[in-house]
Amino acid sequence: MSNASKNRLMPLLQSAGIPALAIVFMGFFGYYAVAGPNGLLRYREYSRAYAKREAEFAQLDKRRAALRNQVALLDPKRGANPDMVDELVRKELNVAHPDEIIVPLN
Where are the transmembrane segments (predicted)? Predict the structure, then answer.
């Protein structure tokens, strides 16, 4: 390159280089905001997954409440519920009196 062409090219690069670089960066971040892994196009997918997890958590909360109630009924400090203890022992040991009729609830 000759000095004359360098002299004409440098001011052009100085005046257009920074805005061009800024446009490239804005394009990259704009694309990432729309089509990236956390972009707007993925929002619907995240919403569905969130709703599914909320339903699972609601079921787990119900199950936890039932287990908490069962633990409270078996708590020896408050006097274990005899019916609950009897039911649990019979279920775990698979025993019954000969004159009893077992009706499964499930």
Answer: 12-34
* Cβ neighbours of residue 96 closer than 8 Å, sequence gap 6 or more: 90, 102
- For residue 16, what are the CA distances in angstroms to 12, 69, 70? 6, 72, 74
Which two tokens mark 23?
Answer: 């446009």
- pLDDT of residue 5 exceeding 80, the answer is no
102 in a structural domain: no
- The verdict on 65 and 90 lying in the same domain is yes
**Cα gap 102→90, rounded to integer Å:** 10
Residue 58 lies in a domain: yes
Q: Which domain holds residue 79?
A: 51-95
Residue 39: CB atoms within 10 Å: 13
pTM exceeds 0.85, yes or no: no
Is residue 17 in some structural domain? yes
Say which DSSP state 78 is in. Answer: S
